[in-house]
Design brief:
alpha+beta, elongated, single chain, two-stranded antiparallel sheet, eight-stranded antiparallel beta sheet
Length: 430
């Protein structure tokens, strides 16, 4: 996909989400008859303007296709006007500030409902388990429902994807990968706990034709401790990779399987590509329903998973579980748009991918704006709480403006840092 088209799609996507957010403020303001001086689509020089005869609000379309805004009487400096935002009672201001966040969540819900209806999204119930897989060997069966992945409760496939992303390599060597995680399945009310340790050993192979070398898998193993009704069983699978059959998409391995330390089999196996080096428990049930109530309900659950993913990702960044690479700004999003849309020739897949991305970003905007960071909606809510603690004494507009400017400066600094990270990732091909 051409870079300019990726940039255009990304800008329009972010602009729509921002305009929806500002529209939430506008709707709440009109409910309480708070004056909105201007509602603008996009930024920069004015292209078109229409003034409402009823409210006096100017509706404008501007040149630069980035964002938009909802300007109140206070933005012109007249905070004492009876229909200004500052002059309203605390609960009215709170609702208006929450209006944008609410609209982002509603939009994420609508988009999630649409994409659930496409039949591409899954819940956490296993449809099938290949009897050649390590999952089947360790007792995982069709119909089991994944309810917990490490520390995350799982409701949707989005939760599973998020938890999978959080699995860390516990070894610093590039030639060894060690990871550990836990799964909890529900089988007709019985909880099955799986404590899983995975090890992959790599070996460096030199290409005699050009002298270049690369790492390839030498062997891998799974140690799985299953706990059911207080009783434990240890399953162990070791696979020595003898060769790769790329033509038939399979690996030829010598596989050793043990239960509680006793060898139950040792044989050469042709492991299919989808099971190679994998547990083999990824075939979860696709939501396939045309019932609007089912879709709306599943869309709401999917939206909750999206919102949860934002909080979890922020916590991982704060605690250092993931680094700055876990953040992405407009530059990074442009790369993502180009990559995910260009990866498929199927137009419907491109559209679904973009809609899903828009839903995730909308949920992200809702969560971020609700945080008590100066300059964001959450900081205004925090100031209202401080006002109530002070017995209803409002913080003067000038002091509120200073707090907002400080927050704006911090956000610009963060944007510069994230942009730098995005550029580095693009240069490195990440």
């Amino acid at each position: 996909m051409p870079v300019f088209l990726s940039i255009l799609i990304m800008l329009l996507m972010l602009s729509v989400l921002t305009i929806v957010h500002e529209w939430g403020h506008f709707i709440a303001a009109r409910i309480f008859k708070v004056k909105v001086v201007e509602f603008s689509i996009f930024m920069g020089p004015k292209l078109f303007q229409r003034t409402s005869k009823k409210t006096g609000t100017k509706f404008t379309l501007r040149l630069i296709p980035v964002g938009g805004y909802c300007a109140f009487e206070d933005d012109l400096g007249d905070s004492n006007a009876p229909d200004s935002l500052y002059a309203q009672k605390w609960y009215k201001r709170a609702v208006i500030f929450l209006g944008g966040v609410t609209m982002n969540f509603i939009l994420a819900w609508i988009l999630a409902t649409l994409i659930v209806g496409t039949g591409y999204f899954t819940n956490t119930k296993l449809d099938t388990v290949d009897n050649r897989s390590i999952a089947y060997f360790s007792g995982i069966r069709e119909g089991d429902r994944l309810v917990r992945f490490d520390s995350l409760n799982t409701l949707t496939g989005t939760d599973i994807t998020l938890a999978s992303y959080g699995i860390k390599d516990m070894n610093d060597s590039e030639e060894v990968m060690n990871s550990h995680y836990t799964l909890v399945y529900d089988r007709n009310g019985t909880k099955l706990n799986y404590d899983i340790s995975k090890t992959i050993n790599y070996v460096k192979v030199t290409d005699e034709s050009d002298g270049t070398s690369k790492l390839t898998i030498d062997d891998y193993s799974y140690t799985i401790v299953k706990t059911e009704n207080g009783e434990t069983i240890e399953y162990y699978v070791y696979a020595k990779v003898n060769s790769l059959d790329t033509e038939n998409n399979q690996a030829l391995c010598t596989v050793v399987k043990k239960i509680d330390g006793e060898t139950v089999s040792e044989a050469d196996e042709a492991i299919p590509g989808e099971l190679y080096c994998a547990l083999g428990n990824g075939n979860y049930h696709v939501i396939d329903s045309k019932n609007p109530f089912v879709l709306i309900g599943n869309g709401f659950v999917e939206m909750i998973s999206m919102v949860k993913s934002v909080f979890v990702s922020l916590w991982w960044i704060i605690t250092g579980k993931v680094g700055l690479s876990g953040l992405a700004g407009p530059i990074g999003l442009t790369g993502v748009v180009s990559e995910v849309v260009g990866a498929s020739a199927n137009v419907s897949i491109k559209v679904i991918t973009l809609v899903n991305m828009a839903a995730l970003i909308s949920a992200n905007l809702g969560v971020i704006n609700a945080l008590p960071i100066p300059g964001l909606d959450g900081s205004h809510l925090l100031l209202i709480i401080v006002e109530l603690i002070r017995g209803g004494k409002k913080i003067p507009p000038k002091q509120q403006a200073i707090i907002s400017y400080v927050g704006l400066g911090l956000m610009i600094l963060l944007a510069v840092v994230v942009a730098g990270s995005d550029i580095v990732k693009l240069i490195q091909g990440g």
